[in-house]
């Protein structure tokens, strides 16, 4: 196992790595939080699209590095230094409020479907180009044509804001935007008085009433002030907006963090060591193996958003149930890795890539639904700590120790054979089994929250409490 030692590298490179890694985290968090606030009625779909594009970004840079930059490290650094800021500045023109030409829900849904389709086609195309480039020598003209098609796929979602800018709806027919406060407070339409929005259920005792009388609350406050008393502000209930310190002391917060930590920690262990795993299993060229994991990771990220969004609206099924299901599949994948049956390496890698994508993405809308969007940035950032902590414990310590111990037995710095990671895979299988059990407990605990939030088939923001 090889780790970067800050003492053995130039200090300029060390500073560059620190700045680059932190800038990436800040930028991705800002984009995610902003879009979750812009489209709070489609949280799973939005998270899936954003995380999906993030997952295939490495493949885009790989194709760019191979086809256009001629595998030159200096050209790649120059592009990252100058090209990325120029692209960001150029795209700022499209960051503006747009009004859809017709009903908000149908229009936004069509736009989401178009973006999802564009990302899927891009991912399939990138996988195909990577395999072709690995097997066939391409001329400069063919390489430039292939790269131009990549850019067309990347730019295709810009057709949405262009269309919405050129074909605006009349001001008189504008409906409330999906992310507006008015739309969230009142829902997509005033519910009929004969059909109550929330039917009495056992969840009432756990959640309390989301729709307390504002008039009664104001009268109580005035009476309390008149008597010289100070009315104690109640704590938020799940589904309302939490401050970080309020969410930090909740059992559901830590259950979600632990499940996320166990799931992505196990997945990142395979991702970080996939090249060594392939070599240990006798695969000389691991490019296709890495591409397969990346593509399946993208499928898991995008698919988890669409799948969980459908079932949470139609069946009020908490998204954490899908986390439990994928953790069970991860147990199977790790057992297949450990047993090292012939022909199962690529199957295990594909299964693990999909499940890792599910785990990585589902935490995002779940945390926003349980603890609100007002302080979602810091809550989401803390949840993300499960990724590096898992990488440190499972990849750096567990997998590194087992690999080095087996390599020492073979008298070499490189370990060959299934036993190089067998113990690691069995331990990770047990970890995922524990994660599936905890995620089922979390699902049972938060089921009433989802029944309350999605009782009408679409997200309903609870009336803001005074806290």
UniProtKB/TrEMBL annotation:
Matching Gene3D superfamilies: MFS general substrate transporter like domains
Name the UniProt record assigns to this protein: Putative transporter MCH1
Keyword hit for Cell membrane: no
Entry's transmembrane regions: 12-33, 45-64, 76-96, 108-133, 145-162, 253-271, 277-300, 321-339, 345-364, 376-403, 423-444
Keyword vocabulary terms for this entry: Membrane, Transmembrane, Transmembrane helix
Protein's UniProt keywords contain Transmembrane helix: yes
Mode of membrane association: Multi-pass membrane protein
Places the protein is found: Membrane
Primary localization: membrane
Residue span(s) of domain NFD4 C-terminal: 250-450
A cellular-component GO term for this protein: membrane
Organism: Gossypium arboreum
Limits of the Nodulin-like domain: 11-162
One of the Pfam families matching this protein, by short name: Nodulin-like
Top-level division of the source organism's lineage: Eukaryota
């Amino acid at each position: 196992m090889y780790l970067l030692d800050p003492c053995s590298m130039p200090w300029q490179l060390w500073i560059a790595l620190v700045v680059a890694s932190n800038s990436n985290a800040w930028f991705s968090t800002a984009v995610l939080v902003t879009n979750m606030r812009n489209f709070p009625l489609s949280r799973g779909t939005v998270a899936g699209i954003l995380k999906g594009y993030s997952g295939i970004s490495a493949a885009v840079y790989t194709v760019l590095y191979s086809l256009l930059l001629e595998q030159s490290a200096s050209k790649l650094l120059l592009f990252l230094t100058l090209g990325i800021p120029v692209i960001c500045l150029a795209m700022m023109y499209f960051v503006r409020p747009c009004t859809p030409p017709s009903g908000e829900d149908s229009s936004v849904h069509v736009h989401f479907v178009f973006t999802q389709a564009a990302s899927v086609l891009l991912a399939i195309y990138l996988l195909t180009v990577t395999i072709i480039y690995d097997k066939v020598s391409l001329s400069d003209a063919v390489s430039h044509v292939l790269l131009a098609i990549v850019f067309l796929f990347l730019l295709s979602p810009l057709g949405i804001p262009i269309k919405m800018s050129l074909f605006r709806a009349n001001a008189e027919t504008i409906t409330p935007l999906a992310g507006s406060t008015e739309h969230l407070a009142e829902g997509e339409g005033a519910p009929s008085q004969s059909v109550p929005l929330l039917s009495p259920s056992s969840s009432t005792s756990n959640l309390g009433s989301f729709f307390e009388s504002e008039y009664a609350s104001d009268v109580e406050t005035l009476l309390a002030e008149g008597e010289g008393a100070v009315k104690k502000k109640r704590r938020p209930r799940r589904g309302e907006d939490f401050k970080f310190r309020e969410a930090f002391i909740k059992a559901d917060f830590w259950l979600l963090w632990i499940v996320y930590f166990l799931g992505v920690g196990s997945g990142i262990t395979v991702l970080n060591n996939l090249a060594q795993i392939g070599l240990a299993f006798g695969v000389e060229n691991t490019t296709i193996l890495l591409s397969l994991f990346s593509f399946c990771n993208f499928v898991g990220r995008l698919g988890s958003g669409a799948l969980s969004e459908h079932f949470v609206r139609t069946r009020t099924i908490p998204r954490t149930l899908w986390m439990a299901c994928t953790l069970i599949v991860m147990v199977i994948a790790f057992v297949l890795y450990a047993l090292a049956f012939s022909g199962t390496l690529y199957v295990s890698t594909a299964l693990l890539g999909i499940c890792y994508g599910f785990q990585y993405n589902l935490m995002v809308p779940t945390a926003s639904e349980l603890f609100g969007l007002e302080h979602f940035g810091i809550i989401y950032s803390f949840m993300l700590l499960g990724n590096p902590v898992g990488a440190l414990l499972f990849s750096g310590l567990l997998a590194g120790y087992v690999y080095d111990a087996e390599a020492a037995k073979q008298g070499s710095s490189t370990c060959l054979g299934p036993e190089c990671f067998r113990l690691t895979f069995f331990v990770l299988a047990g970890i995922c089994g524990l994660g599936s059990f905890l995620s089922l407990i979390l699902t049972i605990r938060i089921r009433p929250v989802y029944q309350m939030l999605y009782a009408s088939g679409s997200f309903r923001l609870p009336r803001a409490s005074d806290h």
